Amino acid sequence: MNIFTNLLSVLLACVLLISLFSCATSPKDEQGSDDKTTQTTQNSQNTTAPDEIAPEPIVYSEGLEFMLNSDSTGYVVKGIGACTDTELMIPNEYQGLPVVEIGEKAFMNCSALTSVTVPDSVTRIGKFAFSNCTSITSIKLPFVGAEEGADEMSTRKFGYIFGEGSNQSALPTSLKTVEITKATSIPDSAFLGCDKLTSVVLHESVTSIETMAFYGCKNLTNIEIRGDLTFIGMESFFGCLALKKIVIPKSVIYIDNNAFEGNQLTIYCEISSQPTTWHKDWNRFNLTVVWGYTGDKS
């Protein structure tokens, strides 16, 4: 009997110890489970890609004067109207229709303007549109001259939108920087004699630079060719005395003779060696050439 009682006591003691041990460890396990859940959530939050910062919206100039074009398919900018901006941002549409033209003398005598951006929707710019805008330092245009592919020499030169005579006499002396955003070609003699310009950027659309396009731009220090240019005409950069570097895209199929005559620049070619299609006198004065260039285009 005593033996039975002792065994029963031992058994009860074991059961009691097991119960106590289970109670003691159970909260720890639960806490561990909570910690894992929290850690998983935190890791999930940490691996979520941050929201991309949206680009700032373009703020177009307001108060400009518009009129419908002759076939009522778009608007013509007629004048400065009530706009007081010094940095002019012409909108690409107005009242649901595209802005397709800048009228003649539209911004004539707007001497407070310091920069101008003409949208790619514009297909024509009238004569004297920016005449006597004496404070402009930079301008962004879809093309050079009156319109893309203009026939007459006078209407395809850069100075056409500024005034009469040569580029040199028509341009404001304050103008230093030009960007061409939509044209496929820079016409013959387009910037001939623009000796105050210091920087020109040709966007991706430009595939050809025609004969004497930048002839005599003696203060040009930077020319950036962003797209797949294929053609550089004869004496295109003749007399660009301040230009020390030009990058020739690997897409260029032909460079005509004396394209860089009268300069002391280094020519950086993205292609690894001279194509047989280039004119034999493209570099007649043996300017320094770096082949296989992979650096900055500006």
- The fold-level CATH name of the largest domain is Leucine-rich repeat, LRR (right-handed beta-alpha superhelix)
Instruction: Compute the CA-based radius of gyration.
Output: 35 Å
Reported CATH architecture of the largest domain? Alpha-Beta Horseshoe
Q: What percentage of the residues does DSSP assign to strands (E)?
A: 15-25%
**CATH homologous superfamily identity of the largest domain:** Ribonuclease Inhibitor
Helix content: 10-25%
Lateral arrangement of strands in the main beta sheet: 3-6-8-9-11-13
Overall shape: globular
The CATH class of the largest domain? Alpha Beta
The class by helix and strand makeup works out as alpha/beta
Order of helix and strand elements from N to C terminus: HEEEEEEEEHEEEEEEEEEE
Distance between the termini: 105 Å
Largest sheet: 6 strands, parallel
For the record, the count of structural domains works out to: 2
User: How many DSSP E strands?
Assistant: 18
Compute the average pLDDT. 86
Q: What are the segments in which pLDDT stays under 50 over at least 5 consecutive residues?
A: 1-5, 20-49
